[in-house]
Specification:
Elements: H1 11-21, H2 24-34, E1 42-44, H3 53-58, E2 63-67, H4 70-80, E3 86-91, H5 99-102, E4 110-116, H6 125-134, E5 136-147, H7 155-159, H8 168-177, E6 180-188, H9 192-202, H10 210-218, H11 220-229, E7 237-244
Parallel strand pairs: 1-2, 1-4, 2-3, 4-5
Antiparallel strand pairs: 5-7, 6-7
C-alpha cells in the first residue's frame, strides 16, 4: 500500500463535505449518536467545514476545532467566531513527525477527543490513535468513527483518498494496541450500506451525487428506526469509544 500524497486543496473532499453539509437530518443523527459519550472539554480532529461542530457549539459545549488543512481552519474561524464556547481553531496533524513538540501545550488537556471519517485517510492509523491518546487527560474519552467493511471499498473511497475501511474488530484492535479501555463499539447507519454499494459499485460514481444525498437525508427518520430494529449489528460506519487508563 503506497502512501497518498497530501493535497492542501482537496477538491473531491471539499465537494463531498459541501454535499453532506446540506444533509441536516443525517448530520444531527450522527451528532446524537456520539454526543452521549462526550464530556468536559472537547477536541474535534478533522472538523472540515464544521458539519458536526455546529451542533456542539449550539449545545454550548466547550470545544476546540481542528483540521489538517489551512483553508478549512480559516473557514471554521470565520463561520463560528460568534460562539463564546469556541475555544479556538488549530492546525493539527495527528501523524506530524514533530507531534509532541508542536502540540506540547495540548497534551493531556482534553476530556473528549472525537474524530469522524478521518482515520481512514491516514496511512499510519496506529500512530494516529497513539498521538490522539496523548491529547487526553487520564479517564478522557476517544471517539473514532470510520467507514465500515473492506468489501464496500470502491471508486468513492479512491477519490476520497481512503486507505481502508474497518469493522468493529479491526478498529477495536487499534484501541487495544494503544491500551485504551473500550467502553462502546457499534455500527451506525445500516441502510447506508446499500446506498454506498449502489452508488459506488453499481453506478460507479466517484463523488456523492447531491440528489442522492438529499433523498437519503429525507429518509433519515426511517433509517434511524431500522438501526434500532437490526440492533446496530451492521452499518456503513463503525464507531468505537475508548477511555485513557
Amino acid at each position: 500500500m503506497k502512501e497518498i500524497e497530501f493535497k492542501e486543496v482537496d477538491q473531491v473532499g471539499g465537494d463531498t463535505l459541501d454535499v453532506i453539509s446540506n444533509a441536516n437530518k443525517f448530520n444531527r443523527w450522527t451528532y446524537d449518536t456520539i454526543r452521549p459519550f462526550c464530556k468536559g472539554k472537547i477536541l474535534e480532529i478533522g472538523s472540515g467545514v464544521g458539519n458536526i461542530s455546529q451542533f456542539f457549539l449550539e449545545d454550548g459545549a466547550p470545544i476546540l476545532l481542528s483540521d489538517i488543512r489551512k483553508g478549512y481552519c480559516s473557514e471554521l474561524k470565520h463561520k463560528f467566531q460568534a460562539y463564546p464556547n469556541l475555544e479556538g481553531v488549530e492546525l493539527i496533524d495527528l501523524v506530524d513527525p514533530a507531534f509532541d513538540e508542536k502540540f506540547k501545550d495540548l497534551l493531556g488537556t482534553f476530556d473528549t477527543l472525537f474524530s469522524l471519517n478521518v482515520v481512514e485517510h491516514i496511512y499510519d492509523d496506529n500512530l494516529a490513535i497513539h498521538n490522539a491518546k496523548k491529547l487526553l487527560k487520564r479517564g478522557g474519552r476517544l471517539i473514532i468513527l470510520v467507514p465500515s467493511y473492506q468489501f464496500l471499498f470502491n471508486g468513492l473511497d479512491k477519490e476520497l483518498d481512503h486507505y481502508r475501511r474497518y469493522n468493529k474488530k479491526t478498529l477495536s484492535a487499534l484501541f487495544d494496541k494503544n491500551d485504551l479501555k473500550i467502553i462502546n463499539k457499534q455500527y451506525f447507519n445500516f441502510m447506508g450500506i446499500f446506498a454506498w454499494f449502489i452508488s459506488g459499485k453499481l453506478q460507479r460514481n466517484e463523488t456523492i451525487p447531491e440528489g442522492q444525498m438529499g433523498l437519503y437525508n429525507a429518509l433519515v427518520p426511517i433509517f434511524k428506526i431500522i438501526d434500532h430494529i437490526v440492533f446496530r449489528a451492521a452499518g456503513l460506519s463503525t464507531i468505537v469509544v475508548g477511555e485513557k487508563k
